[in-house]
Amino acid sequence: MRVLLVEDETRLANAVRRGLEAEGFSVDVAADGKDGFWRASEGRYDAIVLDIMLPGMNGFRVCSALREAGHWTPILMLTAKDGELDEAEALDTGADDFLTKPFSFVVLTARLRALLRRGAPARPAVLTAGDLRLDPASHLAWRGDDELSLTAREFALLEFLMRKVGQVTSKTEILEHVWDPAYDGDSNIVEVYVGYLRRKVDVPYTRRAIQTVRGVGYRLAPDGG
Ligand code: CA
Q1: φ and ψ at 48, to 5 degrees?
Q2: Cβ(33)–Cβ(59) under 8 Å?
Q3: How far is the CA of 53 from the centre of ligand 1 (A)?
Q4: Residue 125: is its pLDDT beyond 70?
Q5: pTM for this one?
Q6: Domain 2-118 CATH class label
Q7: Where in the chain is the domain with CATH 3.40.50.2300?
Q8: Which of 88-102, 138-152, 202-216 has the lowest mean pLDDT?
Q9: Where in the chain are all domains bearing CATH 1.10.10.10?
Q10: How far is the CA of 9 from the centre of ligand 1 (A)?
Q11: Ligand 1 centre from 8 Cα, in Å?
Q12: Quick one: CATH architecture of 127-220?
């Protein structure tokens, strides 16, 4: 198993590298964020141990840049003592686990083995509601086995409704998220687009996934209608 350790403190980096090697891992060390990012993006590692405080590019940025670029190698982030916010941010930026410094070596190896067992995390999940599915990454949507042919705006509207599946969303909320926040045109545009979407997603299948909640807004049925 090949591990990339991104850590600028030489002594700590060397100690961790030696320890992991003794456990049978093959370890490369990057001493700054940019080098860490480039090495990690070559995709040759089974896991990445990433410090937060790094010269060049901090660990949060390295982590989110890797995820944005579509690299899903498991990442264990090293956070500072008493850094509750660090931990939340580590997970928000796409880290799979975190470990607070100073850490015991036994715990580090145990966590790494657990991460490796789990393997690379899933790509951003495909959203589903019954037989209605939407993949934000590939920009494809399906009703059953049929691939839906949606315009960019229709896709964005369906994605928004599917992310809030089962909840009622107002026209204003939809306008803010699916249209430009500065859009100040007629809010009836939402109704118009809901109509377009229904004609592709519901009508041909005699279904009712996109429901109107009178006086409030719209709701996507969790069972796909
Ligand atoms: Ca550091």
Answers
A1: -130, 130
A2: yes
A3: 4
A4: no
A5: 0.56
A6: alpha beta
A7: 2-118
A8: 88-102
A9: 127-220
A10: 6
A11: 5
A12: Orthogonal Bundle (1.10)
